[in-house]
Specification:
The protein is mostly beta strands. The chain has one helix at about 70; strands at about 10-15, 35-40, 45-50, 55-60, 80, 95, 105, 110-115, 120-125, 135-140, 145. About 5% of the residues lie in helices and about 30% in strands. The strands form three sheets. Strands 1, 2, 3, 4 and 5 form a five-stranded antiparallel β-sheet that branches. It has a four-stranded antiparallel β-sheet with strand order 6-7-8-9, with no helix packed on it. The radius of gyration is 14 Å and the shape is globular. The chain starts with 11 loop residues before the first strand and ends in an 11-residue tail after the last strand. It binds FE2/S2 (inorganic) cluster.
Length: about 160
């Protein structure tokens, strides 16, 4: 782990927006197919290590749909990926509800589509690479935490 890592093993996932902003994300609170946006935060300071690159999209998947590529990084059926698009760095903002995007992570800037069941593989659009995965584990009280650093590069280039 390097000093510049935007997430490290043991970092807590905290809601980035909405009524639970600043609270830890728990696997049990999440509904299947619904994404929440969170930051990986240093448990000592409760602050993200990077204002942008510590951002993650967190999704609970149907257990039967999780591919082996995602299974190793999942905790309680929940997976997390960097929320920085690998195309031009927009924040990914949606889980699609229609067509090819259904159940997938979408970057609305230029329409890239990533499959959360398959390690955020690119299914469509201009993104050159998958989103980096953040391996998860459950901590005290079911709070989701990083089990390791992001696997792969965050954002463009
Ligand atoms: Fe995400 Fe272009 S920045 S598709």
């Amino acid at each position: 782990q390097t000093a510049s890592s935007p997430a490290r093993s043991g970092d807590l996932l905290m809601y980035q927006e909405g009524p639970k902003k600043g609270q830890p994300v728990k696997a049990a609170d999440l509904k299947e197919g619904v994404a929440v946006w969170a930051m990986a935060v240093d448990p000592a300071t409760k602050k993200p290590r990077d204002a942008m690159k510590s951002g993650v999209v967190v999704v609970r998947l149907k257990p039967s749909e999780i591919k082996d590529s995602s299974k190793k990084n999942a905790s309680g059926g929940v997976v997390a990926y960097s929320s920085v698009c690998t195309h031009q760095g927009c924040p990914v903002k949606e889980i699609g509800s229609l067509g090819q995007g259904k159940g997938n992570i979408i970057c609305t800037c230029h329409g890239s589509i990533f499959d959360p069941r398959d390690n955020a593989t690119v299914l469509g659009g201009p993104a050159p690479r998958r989103l980096a995965a953040l391996p998860l584990k459950a901590g005290a009280g079911g709070d989701l935490m990083a089990a390791a650093e992001f696997t792969g590069k965050i954002g463009p280039k």
